[in-house]
Amino acid sequence: MRFLTRLMLGLAVLTFAVSCSRTPPRGGAPATYQAAPGPGATPQLGDRRPHAWTGGAPYGHAVHGIDVSRWQGDIDWSRVRGSGISFAFIKATEGGDHADPNFRRYWYEAAQARIPRGAYHFYYFCRTGAENAYWYMRNVPREAGSLPPVLDLEWTNSRNCPRRPPAAEVLREAEVFMQLVGRHYGQRPIIYTTVDFYRENQLGRMNAEFWLRSTANHPSVTYPGQRWTFWQYTGTGIVPGIQGDTDINAFAGSAADWARWLQARLVR
After folding, report:
1. Who's near 125: CB < 8 A, 6+ residues apart?
2. Is 154 noted as a catalytic residue in this protein?
3. Residue 14 pLDDT > 80, yes or no?
4. Burial per residue of 157-174, b for 16 or more beta-carbon CB atoms within 10 angstroms, e otherwise
């Protein structure tokens, strides 16, 4: 009888595991649907608003990570790491005078949980590239083993800075930031951007490694011809250890590619 009980429990666990490993059906899925990407990926992650993908889904990627800011509140970084998250980008600064109040805490706690982490800067167009760069460098430690800096380029909705300069100025000032910050940390920054900003400012002309936001289609559809390293594929992700919606990102390559990328791109 005990053997039969153990057998039934084992079958129940197996059935649950199989049900959690399916890719999202084309007709949509419940809010609690746990999207299991496939071999080597992260079955504990989910999406509150999953949908059918065109051009390729993110779930088959082996390496996934998060980006966070003060709005995530208290984070259980050990649970985050245990869920299969391989990296974290943490908001550090904006413009030339604002720092995220949770940055230092997240920076320390992520390191304690042994999650590779980097810091990103939200660019304000009412400041020069140099002003943005120096503010970032003032607030983000130059720490061996951290991920490369990230420059977040998108239009702001701030009443304090509604300015939208022409593309030539955007590219020029962004390059100033890239050079100053790159020299300071020994790694050229990654550029994070959105579809509209990328197109309107011809960011593909920049010498940069890209982190692209694309929450409805594969980046090959929304950014045709553009190579990328990171893909932000949802803003409504479910991550154990974090309350509420979380941005989830996929790395472009395999687990072996990720190890090689880290070896080449960590700050030293």
Report:
1. 156, 161, 163, 164, 165, 170, 173
2. yes
3. no
4. eeeeeeeeeeeeebbebb
The distance from CA 32 to its chain's CA centroid, rounded to whole angstroms, is: 21
Tens digit of pLDDT for each residue in 112-132?
Answer: 999 999 999 999 999 999 999
Of 192, 242, 249, the C-alpha closest to 215 is: 249
Task: Give yes or no: 131 in active site.
Answer: no
Please identify which of the residues 76, 131, 143, 154 carries the catalytic annotation: 154
Q: Which of 67, 100, 209, 247 is catalytic?
A: 67
CATH topology of domain 60-264: TIM Barrel (3.20.20)
This prediction has a pTM of: 0.85
Whether pLDDT at 32 is above 90: no
List the domain boundaries for the chain. Answer: 60-264
Pairing type for strands 85-94 and 98-99 reads antiparallel
Long-range contacts of 103-112 (CB under 8 A, 24+ apart): 103/139, 103/140, 106/68, 106/75, 107/141, 109/75, 109/77, 110/77, 112/77
DSSP string, 205-254: GS--EEEEE-SSB-HHHHSTT---SEEEEEEEEE-TT--S-EEEEEESS-
pLDDT in tens, 73-115: 999 999 999 999 999 999 999 999 999 999 999 999 999 999 9
